[in-house]
Amino acid sequence: EAQVTQNPRYLITVTGKKLTVTCSQNMNHEYMSWYRQDPGLGLRQIYYSMNVEATDKGDVPEGYKVSRKEKRNFPLILESPSPNQTSLYFCASRPGPRYEQYFGPGTRLTVT
Amino acid sequence: AQSVTQLGSHVSVSEGALVLLRCNYSSSVPPYLFWYVQYPNQGLQLLLKYTSAATLVKGINGFEAEFKKSETSFHLTKPSAHMSDAAEYFCAVSGEYGNKLVFGAGTILRVKS
């Protein structure tokens, strides 16, 4: 089944404790992105990648890191999480600009 | 650069009534436009997309949208609302190049019985 998977689905952590949210897609898509969703703000792009070893900042990259060492994986790293990073995070992939994004199920992160 | 404005953060309709969710976009290049739906506690599902073919686009669950370049709009409609349509709807725009898919703030649709 073609899909984007994310882990974990739910995470509660404390300020400053490094964490990684994994993302994997099995559709051989070139493009991958991370979004955060906050009430009233829609989805805002954090980082995106157009291919292996090619990543760039989205609209809200502060406090996040990403890497794209393999085509299928695009982990999101929070080196020192803060409470304002409490949010719902979505990973997505697509073949190219004219195609829709395929979204993962989401990761609900709470930073206390 | 692209941007999206969704008019009305909340829309309420009666079951069987017309659904109209408004989306206006701004794009410096010919746009690709998308509508997504998000049911409570779920991810995002594609409803329909415009990629420069027919201006009237039909999607899943009886929804359709019309691309109007002169009005820079891509409003979503459904002739008769069903209780199961209650969800949050997002309009999004993408350009020809790059990976920028920009979302609107979303419209929560409530369907009254």
Write a concise synopsis of the structure shown:
The complex is a heterodimer of chains A (112) and B (113). By secondary structure, chain A is mainly beta. Chain A contains no helices and eleven strands.
Explained architecture:
The complex is a heterodimer of chains A (112) and B (113). Chain A is mainly beta and 112 residues long. Chain A has no helices and eleven strands. Chain A has strands spanning 4-7, 10-13, 19-25, 31-38, 42-51, 54-57, 65-66, 76-78, 87-94, 102-103, 107-111. In chain A, strands 2, 4, 5, 6, 9, 10 and 11 form a seven-stranded mixed β-sheet that branches. In chain A, a hairpin with a 3-residue loop joins strand 4 (31-38) and strand 5 (42-51). The model of chain A has no long low-confidence stretch (mean pLDDT 94). With 113 residues, chain B is mainly beta. Helices cover 0% and strands 58% of the residues of chain B. In chain B, the strands form two sheets. In chain B, strands 2, 4, 5, 9, 10 and 11 form a six-stranded mixed β-sheet that branches. In chain B, strand 6 and strand 7 (64-68) form a beta hairpin. In chain B, 38% of the residues are buried. The model of chain B has no long low-confidence stretch (mean pLDDT 91). The A-B interface holds A 31, 33, 35, 40-45, 48-50, 56, 58, 90, 94, 97-101, 103-106 and B 6, 9, 32, 34, 42-46, 49, 51-52, 90, 92, 94-106.
Q: What does the overall shape of chain A look like?
A: globular
Oligomer: heterodimer
| Straight-line N-to-C gap of chain A | 36 Å
Termini separation of chain B (Å)? 41 Å
Order of helices and strands of chain B: EEEEEEEEEEE
Mean pLDDT of chain B: 91
Percent helix range of chain B: under 10%
Question: Largest sheet of chain B, if any?
Answer: 6 strands, mixed
Helix and strand content put the structural class of chain A at mainly beta
Largest sheet of chain A: 7 strands, mixed
The outline of chain B comes out as globular
**Tally of strands of chain A:** 11
Largest interface: A-B, 25 and 27 residues
